[in-house]
Design a protein that fits this description.
Blueprint (H helix, E strand, L loop, with lengths): L7 E5 L6 H15 L7 E5 L5 H7 L5 E4 L16 H6 L4 E4 L2 H7 L5 H11 L3 E6 L3 H5 L3 H12 L10 E6 L13 H18 L7 E7 L18 E4 L6 H10 L1
Parallel strand pairs: 1-2, 1-8, 2-3, 3-4, 4-5, 5-6, 6-7, 7-8
The structure holds 2-phosphoglycolic acid.
Length: about 250
């Protein structure tokens, strides 16, 4: 399996910012970013409404994407945002199956349709989130849960040949909690994710897979994950809202 070596750091702004503060953060990140040299890919994920404004103010070396996408392509689906609309606005990435969407918006059952839509109908790279709850971790269910979530999310995909995909391992208990998984555990899960994908699609490679970690990554803990070849980057929530912290993490990772 080809696992591309380019690291990727993604800022998930969630619904923490309004339009004005999204533009202001975009400008700050862009100013800071122009001072540094990095070969990593950098992505920000604003809310849908801010995407267009962010795209106009963002340093051209930084990519942007959305936090979700409709499973449908077009039609009478009030409140949805289509893949085509995101493509036209220049999104190169889309987050799918974040635990907050699974928890508050019952996304579990539609994740496979969203993955199919993105992988079959666009060049946008899906970032699929998976992760166990604290109770599941305590009862040693982590690998079982990861396995189930990946299999369910990719159940409608026949091949990943020539596709790009990112899987973000985000333990639910680590998100926004200040708690972080140990490097050993993270590496084990990252390796397991690659094994699962390899097994599911063994006849249909090559594929462009990166597995990244998310959950309370910040300026004081990210360095532990450096030099771990299985960990290709981060999905960062809270710490991505502070331009200087976000850029320092990118710079030093
Ligand atoms: P956090 O969020 O870095 O604030 O824990 C990560 C995420 O939910 O993607």
């Amino acid at each position: 399996m080809k696992d591309i070596s380019k690291k990727i750091i993604i800022g998930n702004w969630k619904m923490n910012l309004d339009f004005k503060s999204s533009i202001s953060l975009t400008k700050k990140i862009s100013q800071n970013f122009s001072k540094i040299k990095t070969s990593h890919e950098v992505v920000v994920l604003p809310d849908f409404l801010s995407l267009s404004g962010v795209s106009k103010n963002l340093n051209k070396k930084i990519f942007y994407g959305s936090q979700d996408v409709s499973p449908f392509s077009r039609g009478a689906y009030t409140g949805e945002v289509s893949l085509e609309a995101l493509s036209q606005i220049g999104c190169k990435f889309v987050l799918i199956g974040h635990s907050e969407r699974r928890q508050y918006f019952s996304d579990d059952d539609i994740i496979s349709y969203k993955m199919k839509n993105v992988l079959e109908n666009s060049k946008i790279t899906p970032i699929l989130c998976v992760g166990e709850t604290w109770d599941q971790k305590k009862s040693n269910q982590t690998l079982k849960v990861i396995n189930q979530q990946i299999k369910a999310a990719l159940a409608k995909i026949k091949t990943l040949k020539n596709k790009k995909i990112i899987i973000a391992y985000e333990p639910v208990w680590a998100i926004g909690s200040g708690k972080i998984v140990s490097v050993e555990e993270a590496v084990l899960v990252h390796q397991e994710i690659k094994k699962i994908i390899n097994k599911m699609f063994k006849d249909k490679l090559p594929l462009d897979l990166r597995v990244i970690y998310g959950g309370s990554v910040n300026l004081s803990n990210f360095i532990e994950f450096k030099n771990q070849p299985d960990i290709s980057g981060f999905l960062i929530g809270g710490a991505s809202l502070k331009a200087s912290d976000f850029v320092k993490i990118i710079n030093k990772f």
